[in-house]
Fold:
Amino acid sequence: MNTKSLIDYTLHLADNALILGHRNSEWCGHGPVLEQDIAISNIALDLIGQARNFYQYAAQLTGNDATEDSLAYLRDEREFKNCLLVELPNGDWGQTILRQFFFSTYQYFLYRQLQKCGDEQLSAITEKALKEVSYHVRWSSEWVIRLGDGTEESKQRMLHAVDELWSYTGEMFVAVGYELSAFSHGFGIDLSVVKNDWDEKIRSVFEEATLSIPVNAWMHTGGKEGKHTEHVGFVLAEMQFLQRAYPNSEW
Structure:
């Protein structure tokens, strides 16, 4: 087994969940209605819980006194391996919903495949998380349909969200070095299988939402290898401030 690839792959999974969880937490107290404010906050907690499980495993593999906290709070921007999609600003409710739908659908099919991977710990983490992600997909897809096939204003906002986000979706399915190594060593998966399932689900929901899928769109990449947008620096500055200002603080 290639331990470095396993660590990098696990950190990639953790970083995706942590950064999107933090983004979703920014809605706490600002949701359009109380029930949905609670829903998006609970999804944020689900994602951060997933991140913790992945970071704990990555810390175990890393050794050298690494912990889930040091991996989340003491790594720099270029060390984070999350997809660009999850670090983008929330925008309006429609944009947040669409980002969640795109990513949760990806997570769902990814985790479903990882349950069968050759690493017992990754398999166990993803099996547990899949129950949460199934709800995230259902919740976000219902909102995409509700807004896309709703009022004229909600339709225009969803069209704008598609324009803003679609070019960041392709990166999820472009395997980088540690993903290719993970697949070759039996603890990763073939992303083309995930993409086929993702495409089918997106097409089905977009059809019901009366939204069109862009064609021949250029795709942004780089986040998985630490080449991020300017937005991730601001996320980390806020998220990591306490730990960096007061190292090793405890409640």
In short: The radius of gyration is 18 Å.
